[in-house]
Design a protein that fits this description.
- With 164 residues, this protein is mostly helical.
- Helices cover 66% and strands 0% of the residues.
- Helix 1 (3-27) crosses helix 5 and helix 3 (77-100) packs antiparallel against helix 4.
- The protein starts with a helix and ends in an 8-residue tail after the last helix.
- The protein has 5 helices and no strands.
- The chain is globular and about 50 Å long.
Length: 164
């Protein structure tokens, strides 16, 4: 398959997840998903940066973008539901592991910080048979530089405390 076509397919697939992952930076805050509670190891479950409002608005924005893609690209409706939801759960899973490794909320966890949400989106889309393994690999390769660039822009715009 042509590499340009793979890149286009990868970006079409992952765009709702990108939007879902970015939205909490703008719409987060409020009640923490872990309610400030600690896990059995005595460390916070997810940390202060993971909130219900951020998760909900992230999912709604990702869902909305996904529905537009469903219309234009004939994706099944469940694509719009599962892909952003999986992305947000992938991000939560990474936050959980970061707390176990004593990495503070917002702290750097190279590579995982850039692909956690992509892995979640891919895993949740598997039952839909939407992407090939080649598209999944291209998505995983494209995302780190895109993620770093967008986070740097958000940092420069004073939307984030760290450029990663």
């Amino acid at each position: 398959m042509d590499i340009a076509l793979l890149v286009i397919q990868a970006l079409k697939f992952i765009f709702p997840a990108y939007c879902a992952n970015a939205t909490p930076v703008l719409a987060g805050g409020g009640t923490k998903i872990d309610f400030g509670k600690n896990f059995i190891d005595g460390k916070r479950l997810f940390g202060n940066n993971k909130t219900f409002r951020g998760f909900f608005f992230g999912w709604i924005v990702g869902l909305s973008i996904g529905l537009v893609e469903c219309y234009f690209f004939s994706f099944p409706i469940l694509f719009a539901v599962f892909t952003p939801f999986g992305a947000l759960l992938g991000d939560l899973a990474a936050a959980f592991f970061k707390r176990r490794l004593n990495i503070a909320p917002g702290g750097l966890f190279p590579i995982i910080d850039q692909i956690d949400f992509v892995i979640g989106a891919i895993v949740f889309s598997i039952p839909l048979y939407l992407i090939s393994w080649e598209v999944a690999v291209v998505t995983l390769l494209l995302t780190p530089p895109i993620h770093l660039f967008t986070n740097f822009c958000a940092y420069k715009l004073k939307l984030k405390k760290h450029p990663w």
